[in-house]
Amino acid sequence: MNQLKQAAAKAILTKIGMLADANGTANANALSTDDIAGMFEYPPDPKMGDLAFPCFKLAKTLRQAPPKIAAALADGLSVDGISDIQVVGGYLNLFVDQSGMAKNTLDAILAQKEAYGGSEEGKGKTVVLDYSSPNVAKPFHIGHLGTTVIGHSLKKLHAFCGYTCVGINHLGDWGTQFGKMIVAYKKWGDRETVERGECDALVELYVKFHEEAEKDPSLNDEARAVFTEMEHGNPEYMELWKWIKEISLREYEKTYRQLGITFDSYAGESFYTDKMPAVVEELKEKNLLKIDDGASIIDLSDYNMPPCLILKRDGSTLYPARDISAALYRKNTYHFDKCIYVTSAGQSLHFAQWFKVLELMGYDWAKDQLVHVPYGTVSIDGGKLSTRSGNVVLLRDLFNQAIEKVSAIMDEKNPNLPDKEKIAESVGVGAIIFYYLSSGRIRDINFVMEDALSFEGNTGPYAQYTYARASSIVSKAEAAGIVGIDAPIDLSGVAVSEEENALIKTLALFPDKVKQALHEYEPSVITRYILDVCADFNRFYHDVQILSCEDACTRLFRVNLTLAVKYVLGNAFELICIQKNEKI
Q: Helices 176-188 and 218-231: crossing angle, nearest 10°?
């Protein structure tokens, strides 16, 4: 479909140039083929065409009414692959030659396979992605899922489109919370209990600290003092800090393995401790720092933002100082063209502040190359998550529930399935990921267990079962010795049905959906697209004969169409961190 859009855009641009010359509006020549291609829409009803070109944006440029422009553009317009062009008001409705689109789409998918849908848009460019980044000493809970799966999906999307990607897990391994942890450990903890309980034991100590601090606020002062000593290298506290971090990382790695996620760097907040003094000094040299009630701030009132706090009254650093140091280090190390931060929408002001500070420091790249990708909050049955109060749902528990449910269904439907435990894990974990990524990232999610773990309707398991169904058909066709599978399509003598046309049109949209998801930083575009493919494929599967079709040419076409579905679904699964299973 993308090639057709480009061809149609080129033809329409030529006609626009002719109209502009005729009425003396030469500024129309500023338009490009990509500009025109980007204006195409997909009509909601197939009767209105396969592509629609709205002429409303051209009215001012060409000084004519949109219906008149549409009629003039349609006059004599010819595009290879377009069988009919109709004018409806201010729209050009283009009807694609179905046989040609079927052949071109399937040939492209079968030739490109795992590369279909990708591009070289980012060739020669580097993107750094900062995501997941849990706070050390706290186990993974459902609140961490957003940054982790959205971030990794964005990394996959960028890599699929040719970018060199650097995934960074900017661990929350520094800050006053470690003063709290160390105070809690020294007062109420012991090494044997923590080693045995790992992150759970650390959380108990963290919750205990806040309970006791409610009664005795001086504990907070004690914690701040401990962290200040950490910043000055107190040996005892630094050893405890390293130990707590090691315990936490062991826990996190288990979750990352289940999600199939790896990182290129685990450089967290502590990594920048020795780099922050130079940043603070640079801020002073550039006369950006001001003292306010003993704290060092940067006044951002000219930009309608509150001041950005760099140093506390006791001289210890705050998040902006670390983030600025990290951005400068990453720019100098990776020479990125874009650095993406995936965090909750609640941190939007924080990122706007320190992005602006970098601009004020004279780093012009901060304006265009730093990107904050926010996402909504997660609640459990309407209740706000809080590690302090212990109101969390741990990811490991959530995954285990999903895996157990999948296992029970598999025991009933396919008890002799090989690798059942492995498949149950991938389907169960995939169900949680799919549920989360089904909504637009900025929307708040009220996480309801029953909905997340449902195996009916528009769910992850439904999508994975559809992939397995397509895989089974292709395997049976190969076992039957059908010749011509995974080869260029010959449609001579094949009457393409309505169901097949609908499925092919959906498959042809995949490159556009990838581009949309990439530019909008929105993995849910892919998730919703997967459901469209599944719906069209299952309709095709139920309405036509595939392996039992008597006509050999039609049978081969349908097998290859099924194989194309398998490739596209597999590629889409990869982009949202879902594993592929040939059998379920």
A: 110
CA–CA gap between residue 42 and residue 107 (Å, rounded):
22
Q: What fold does the segment set 2-96 form as a domain? A: Gyrase A; domain 2 (3.30.1360)
CB 232 within 8 A of CB 314: no
Helix (H, G, I), strand (E, B) or coil at 125: coil
Q: How far is CA 248 from CA 137, 236, 244, 270, 481, in A?
A: 5, 19, 6, 15, 53
In the 8-state DSSP scheme, what is residue 385?
P
Query: How far is the C-alpha of 164 from the C-alpha of 52, rounded, in Å?
Result: 35
Q: Using 50, 70 and 90 to split pLDDT, how confident is the model at 38?
A: confident
Mean pLDDT of 528-541: 97
Above 80 in pLDDT, residue 581?
Answer: yes
* DSSP reduced 3-state for 548: coil
CB 284 within 8 A of CB 187: no
Bridge-based pairing of strands 338-344 and 126-130 is parallel
Q: Tell me the C-alpha distance between 513 and 519, whole Å.
A: 10
Q: How far is residue 368 CA from its own chain's centroid?
A: 20
CATH of 395-575, one of 3.30.200.20, 2.115.10.20, 1.10.730.10, 1.20.140.10: 1.10.730.10
Q: From CA 142, how far away is CA 397, in angstroms rounded?
A: 10
Q: Mean pLDDT over residues 269-285, rounded? A: 93
* 485 within 8 A of 471, measured Cβ to Cβ: no
Other C-beta atoms closer than 10 Å to the C-beta of 98 total 17
Phi, psi of 142 (to 5 degrees): -60, -25
The arrangement of strands across the sheet holding 164-168 comes to: 164-168, 126-130, 338-344, 370-375
Most confident range (mean pLDDT) of 166-175, 415-424, 432-441, 567-576 is 567-576
Cα separation of 530 and 517, whole Å? 13
Starting from the edge strand earliest in sequence, which strands make up the sheet with 91-96, in order?
A: 51-54, 91-96, 82-88
CA distance 246 to 198: 10
Q: Name the amino acid, one letter, at 106.
A: L
Would you state the pLDDT for residue 313?
85
- Radius of gyration, CA atoms only, the chain: 28
CB atoms within 10 A of CB 518: 22
d(CA 551, CA 257): 46
* Structural domain 126-282+317-384, CATH architecture: 3-Layer(aba) Sandwich (3.40)
Structure tokens at 493: 């003598």
- Amino acid, res. 543: D
pLDDT band at 27 (very low <50, low <70, confident <90, very high): low
Does residue 410 have a pLDDT over 90? no
Q: CATH 3.30.1360.70 in the chain, residues?
A: 2-96
Residue 266: closest CA among 403, 169, 126: 169
